[in-house]
Amino acid sequence: MTAQSLEPSAPAPTVVPAPRGGLTGRRSAGGRLRAAPMAVFWALVVAILLLPIALFLLVAVSPRLFGQGGAWLTLDGFRGALSGPLLRGIGDSLLVGVASALLAAVLGGAVAWTVQRTAVPGRRVWSASMFALLLVPSYLIALGWERLLEPQGVLDLLGVPDGFARTLLYGPAGVIMVLTVKGIPFAYLAIGAGLRGLGEEFEAAVRVHGGGRAAAARTVAGLLAPALWSALAIVFAESVSDFGVAATLANDAHFPVATFALYNAVDNFPVQFPVAAAVGWVLLGMAGLALLAQSAALRGRSYRVLGGRTRPARRRALPKQAAAAAVAGMTLLVGACLGVPAFGAVSASLIDGLGSLLGSHGFTLSNYGRVLSSAALRQPLLFSTQLAAVTATVTVLLGLVVARTLTGRRSRRSARLLDLLLLAAVALPGIVFAAGYIFAYNLPLTNDLGIHLYQTTTLLVLGYVATALPPAARVLFGAAGQLQESMREAGRVHGHGPLGSWLRLTLPLLARPLLSAWSLTFGATVLELPVSQLLYPPDHPPVSVGIEKALANYDYGGGTAMQVIAILAALLVIALVWGVFRLAAPAGWRHLGRNA
């Protein structure tokens, strides 16, 4: 045995155990801090999107659960909705929905073909007019036509015979016409998207085999079936859920429709929440029928025509006569859709005493002076402008979180759930949202929990945010999906915290999309009608309700002057915001934002 082996072995190094819960506790605390904002976000989504609508629709089958009747499970609400005047309103909604969808698909498809497949003069003007028409509320179009053709209206004062046109306007034909006008841009966008992906080789193949223009048109129409059915479904759903025309032209023409029947069930005394909820279910069922018809028509067929060898279709030069006819047709269509209602509103606002036997009926600016000097007419303008600014800001912030959640790699299950909620919110009519808010936030349980939001400005803003969040999130979806996670990590590597990394790297890329979403939300909220009509706080009407009240009091000059001023004010605010961005934002922000 050697001396080395006799030496005592070195003591084993001692391992000091880490304190229990040290590192793990810090990680779990950090995870809780990161999860807290998302928990608040989901609570807000449930409060503004899911809970009010779910409770409102549930009262149709279980009124006793909410103190609205004596039965725990009943279909009495549906019996009331499917009988008498309410049944007629549902039938009228189906009629105008189908008719306006067919007409809008034909006209929108013609505009899309003319703009994308021909070298018609003024292509950008016609395309821009479709987007402008998309932003105009339907009730403003209806009111513009009414001011022209009503008894003692603009045309009567100008001595233009309008008896036949008035008879058509104040009836089913007039309601269908206005809803068709409002549906044309939806059909244009849906069919135009299909045309962009369809090459011209199919038309060439038909002509090579001896087919004429009619055969080529049938072939193209068959290949565009998904876009055509999408246009029909969108316009049908928009028409049956529209409240603006229902509250103005259809009501004045004594032509009942489903959305106004729902409004009467909630707004009149006694309130009939189960019947209103049943009408809401019927409106949802109508939208579902449109989607089922689209799915059945396209099932089992393939329309994959876009590939690597697809050649973009060339725009065909039109002969002089054809070009002149196309320009004349587009001018007539845009004039009827935008020009005539605008002329009706502006001319009515310049006539003294329009709609009454008082006043000189001469042209004057006194109506604008009354709106700007009278608190009753001026305050709704200021109130709506303030609410629209708050709504647009909150909606853009929430929309950005929604877009990042939908495009993120983590929590795919929550992203799918959120996407489903947004799609359901898009399908719901605005009047159903408003009725759901009235019902949910006026329950005794809600008040017992200390939530006192009924008849407050806060509830009105929440209603605005709920209806504006789905489109705003879709606007931001594309830009947010282009951002790579490595950019945020690079900012952390260079010493920036989460907020600094977002401000220095993410915000410049999203500046322009954020401003676009803000502008769209602001413009849509200023003149929003269904949510405003049901949720406005007492003595604080928004501008759309103020316009309705002025017109109900036969102050047509003051009401139309409010319309014109509200539109100009919204455009001025949007132009001011973009002007400040162009002047104050760094050049890099403007360049990167444009690319994003």
UniProtKB/TrEMBL annotation:
<feature type="transmembrane region" description="Helical">
    <location>
        <begin position="36"/>
        <end position="61"/>
    </location>
</feature>
<dbReference type="GO" id="GO:0005886">
    <property type="term" value="C:plasma membrane"/>
</dbReference>
<feature type="transmembrane region" description="Helical">
    <location>
        <begin position="215"/>
        <end position="237"/>
    </location>
</feature>
<feature type="transmembrane region" description="Helical">
    <location>
        <begin position="271"/>
        <end position="293"/>
    </location>
</feature>
<comment type="similarity">
    <text>Belongs to the binding-protein-dependent transport system permease family.</text>
</comment>
<feature type="transmembrane region" description="Helical">
    <location>
        <begin position="94"/>
        <end position="113"/>
    </location>
</feature>
<keyword id="KW-0997">Cell inner membrane</keyword>
<keyword id="KW-0472">Membrane</keyword>
<feature type="transmembrane region" description="Helical">
    <location>
        <begin position="459"/>
        <end position="477"/>
    </location>
</feature>
<keyword id="KW-0812">Transmembrane</keyword>
<feature type="domain" description="ABC transmembrane type-1">
    <location>
        <begin position="90"/>
        <end position="294"/>
    </location>
</feature>
<dbReference type="GO" id="GO:0055085">
    <property type="term" value="P:transmembrane transport"/>
</dbReference>
<feature type="transmembrane region" description="Helical">
    <location>
        <begin position="418"/>
        <end position="439"/>
    </location>
</feature>
<keyword id="KW-1133">Transmembrane helix</keyword>
<protein>
    <submittedName>
        <fullName>Iron ABC transporter permease</fullName>
    </submittedName>
</protein>
<dbReference type="InterPro" id="IPR000515">
    <property type="entry name" value="MetI-like"/>
</dbReference>
<keyword id="KW-0813">Transport</keyword>
<feature type="region of interest" description="Disordered">
    <location>
        <begin position="1"/>
        <end position="22"/>
    </location>
</feature>
<dbReference type="Pfam" id="PF00528">
    <property type="entry name" value="BPD_transp_1"/>
</dbReference>
<dbReference type="InterPro" id="IPR035906">
    <property type="entry name" value="MetI-like_sf"/>
</dbReference>
<feature type="transmembrane region" description="Helical">
    <location>
        <begin position="169"/>
        <end position="195"/>
    </location>
</feature>
<feature type="transmembrane region" description="Helical">
    <location>
        <begin position="556"/>
        <end position="581"/>
    </location>
</feature>
<feature type="transmembrane region" description="Helical">
    <location>
        <begin position="322"/>
        <end position="351"/>
    </location>
</feature>
<feature type="transmembrane region" description="Helical">
    <location>
        <begin position="387"/>
        <end position="406"/>
    </location>
</feature>
<feature type="domain" description="ABC transmembrane type-1">
    <location>
        <begin position="381"/>
        <end position="577"/>
    </location>
</feature>
<keyword id="KW-1003">Cell membrane</keyword>
<feature type="transmembrane region" description="Helical">
    <location>
        <begin position="125"/>
        <end position="145"/>
    </location>
</feature>
<feature type="transmembrane region" description="Helical">
    <location>
        <begin position="514"/>
        <end position="536"/>
    </location>
</feature>
